[in-house]
Structure formats: structure tokens, C-alpha cells
Amino acid sequence: MHKILSIVILILFIASTSQVIAQKKSVKKDWEIEAVPYLWYAGLDGTLTKYDGTAYPFEASFSDVFKNLDFAFMFEVSAKYKKLCFSTDFNYIKLSRENQPAPVGYPYLTTDLQHTETDYEFTAGYTTELKKLELKFMGGAKIVSVSTKLDAYNNSTLFKSGTIEETIVDPIITADAKYGISKGFYGAIHLGYGGFGVNSERIIDSKIMFQKYFSQMFSVRLGYRYLYTKIKKDTYATDISKGGFVMGFGFNF
Fold first, then answer.
1. Nearest-CA neighbor of 221 among 180, 176, 188, 177?
2. Complete DSSP assignment for 80-121
3. Which of 203, 212, 159 is nearest to 183 (CA)?
4. Do residues 244 and 227 make contact, with C-beta atoms less than 8 angstroms apart?
5. N or C: which end of the chain has fewer CB atoms below 10 A?
6. Class of 2-252 per CATH?
7. Model-level pTM?
8. Chain-centre distance for alpha carbon 183
9. Measured distance CA(74)–CA(192) in Å, rounded
């Protein structure tokens, strides 16, 4: 936890120095760019089903995920050129868990799990403004690369091992609404839907966010995100829900 606090303090220090620079950038430009590193305090639950029909249900709170976390990086960049808008969201997470009970029906086994997931989303579209309300409608692609290795042991002897490696590309459409509540303070809603049976059967991504600008160059976001993904491939199927609070730091250029 002290590592997270150190990162937050460093970002706030950088942000405070940006206020001086921001005073020199009051002229509105055609291009507007915002970079947002963020933390997603997400728990998850769902089912992973292998090609042989073996189902591995799982459920983990954020504290469980954090305890087994090896590395994570989350970053969002949005850009606007006049009425055109662009967005990309990048997530990387690596988890490992050892000596855990096997699925129901295998009481004599323990399992070791290594899971790496990389998630990219690229969208582009059109934006319009109605007084205090800004609307964005975009479409694009979501690319998910997953690598999962599961080893089952019987009294420390390897009983069975399996690896799943897949890269999945799906179309996605999104809608965003951002409303000016007061000076420098905004509320926003994001809705995304994708898959359409191309690779994923269904992707639902929703966010409710509040954003406070402390200068023209720096803001803080707080909110909640829910992501549901249902995938069925030849080698495996997943049905996963992730949900939790989000904290991000926006840097505007």
C-alpha cells in the first residue's frame, strides 16, 4: 500500500508544478489531448472453461487480486481535433497464485495459476457540445491478449498442466456524456458495447466518473467501472465480470 501512496504523492507533486505552466496556455487550440494513468480497484468473478469441458469458477475481491498481483499498468489517452475525437485505453495485468484448492470434484489436488492479460481499445468518432453537455459517439476495436497457465498437483507431484494463449479482436461502439456541474467540476458517463458474436459474444463496459480540474493541465478522476466479457473460443470459454472504484490523474496538453 505504501508503494501506491508514493506514486500518488509523486503525481500530485508533478501536478502542482504544472499549474505555473498552465497559466501560459490559456489559448484554445484545435487539438486537445489528455493522458490519464489510473488505478482500477477491481474485484472479479466468473468461470473459465477449458476445451475438455472442465470449468474453473473463481471469485476474488480487490484485496485478493492485489495480494496475487505481480505487475499492472493502466493508461488512457483521449484526443480531440475540432469535432473529431479519438481514444485509446491500455490495461496490462499479471497475476500468479500458488497452492490453491482445485475445482470442485478434485479434493486431493492443488493448483498453481499464472495469468497475464493485455487489453487495448482504440476508438474514433464525433463529438458535439450542447451548452454544458459534451457528447461523444465512437467506434473501433478491442484487442485482448490472454495467457493462462494452470498446473495441478497431487501431493507436490505434477498431475496435469494446461496453457491457454489467445488474442481476440472485437468491434466495439461507445457513447460518452460529460456535464459541467460547476466551474472545473464535471460528471461523466461512459457506455460501451461490443463483441457482437465476432469473437466475444458480448462486451459491456460502463463507467460513472467525477472529474475535478485543479489547473488547465491537471485533474483528478474518481468513479466506478464495471466490465463484463463473455468469450467462447475453440480452446476455452470465459464469463467474467470485473467491478470496482477508479482513481485517475489527467494531464492535458
1. 188
2. EETTEEEEEEEEEEEEEEEEEEPSTT-TT-EEEEEEEEEEEE
3. 212
4. no
5. N
6. mainly beta
7. 0.80
8. 28
9. 18
Backbone torsions φ then ψ of 28, nearest 5 degrees: -75, 135
Q: Are strands 69-81 and 157-182 parallel, antiparallel or unpaired?
A: unpaired
Look at residue 11 and give its three-state secondary structure: helix
CA gap 36, 219 in Å, rounded: 9
Alpha carbon distance 32, 167 (integer Å): 32
188-212 confidence digits (pLDDT tens): 999 999 999 898 899 999 999 999 9
Reading the block at residue 58, the C-alpha cell is: 473463481
DSSP 8-class letter at 51: T
Q: Give residue for cell 475540432.
A: 82
Cα–Cα distance between 234 and 51 in angstroms, integer? 7
Query: Cβ contacts of residue 162 below 8 Å, gap of 6+?
Result: 50, 149, 150
Residue 49 bridge partners (DSSP): 55, 237
User: What is the overall mean pLDDT for the chain?
Assistant: 83
